[in-house]
User: Which sequence fits this backbone?
């Protein structure tokens, strides 16, 4: 065996240790909320990101009259999967760069999505 | 509510896609390996970590390396990864499917 080369056993052991560490780190890292687009596509995101939207925030935080607050699943029958995904990318962008000092990277929007995105953002109070 | 502060480091993510599902998973690129992604995906999907794999490309040719960090594999914020599950009771894996169609254009 060459210097620095690992045996199969060592490599497996290292892999097991990494997996165990990963499980430990993953605990409590995300509280999933499912957003469903008009074609049934599901986008699963962290609750913190979903709360960027005022509309979703009130649905999730509201009293039990909103069934959404119990199931953590929200349907958007008027929003296409492309637009919904873009909106979610914006949630994460907003979360990351709010109170961020200095230069902000551009948030890219495809021109063909712009109008639909505007309407979705308005509805979602984002 | 959450103990994890929304710093730039902790709020990077990858988009993991399989069939009609996209999961936004937090990823700490310089530290995390594919094990971390599996563990986080498992918390959402409840699919055992041994039953899932991630590809870098939609054609399902480049598997994520088990022993490198995400950054070492040039994975950046907002990138898409393709997830497949093991076919139950076999050693075979699904082909990559996004939406309703298979990547190879099979019906």
Assistant:
């Amino acid at each position: 065996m060459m210097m620095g080369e690992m045996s199969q056993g060592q490599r497996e052991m290292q892999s097991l240790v990494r997996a165990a560490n990963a499980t430990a780190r993953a605990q409590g890292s995300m509280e999933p909320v499912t957003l469903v687009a008009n074609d049934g596509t599901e986008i699963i995101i962290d609750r913190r990101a979903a709360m960027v939207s005022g509309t979703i925030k009130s649905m999730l935080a509201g009293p039990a009259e909103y069934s959404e607050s119990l199931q953590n699943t929200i349907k958007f029958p008027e929003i296409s999967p492309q637009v919904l995904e873009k909106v979610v990318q914006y949630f994460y962008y907003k979360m990351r760069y709010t109170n961020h000092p200095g230069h902000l990277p551009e948030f890219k929007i495809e021109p063909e999505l712009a109008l639909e995105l505007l309407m979705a953002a308005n509805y979602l109070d984002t | 509510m959450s103990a994890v502060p929304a710093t730039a480091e902790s709020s990077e993510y990858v988009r993991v896609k399989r069939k009609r599902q996209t999961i936004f998973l937090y990823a700490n690129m310089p530290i995390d390996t594919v094990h971390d992604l599996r563990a986080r995906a498992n918390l959402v999907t409840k699919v055992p970590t041994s039953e899932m794999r991630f590809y870098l490309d939609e054609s399902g040719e480049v598997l994520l390396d088990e022993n490198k960090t995400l950054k070492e594999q040039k994975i950046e914020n907002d990138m898409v990864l393709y997830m497949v599950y093991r076919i139950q009771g076999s050693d075979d894996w699904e082909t990559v499917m996004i939406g309703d169609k298979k990547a190879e254009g099979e019906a």
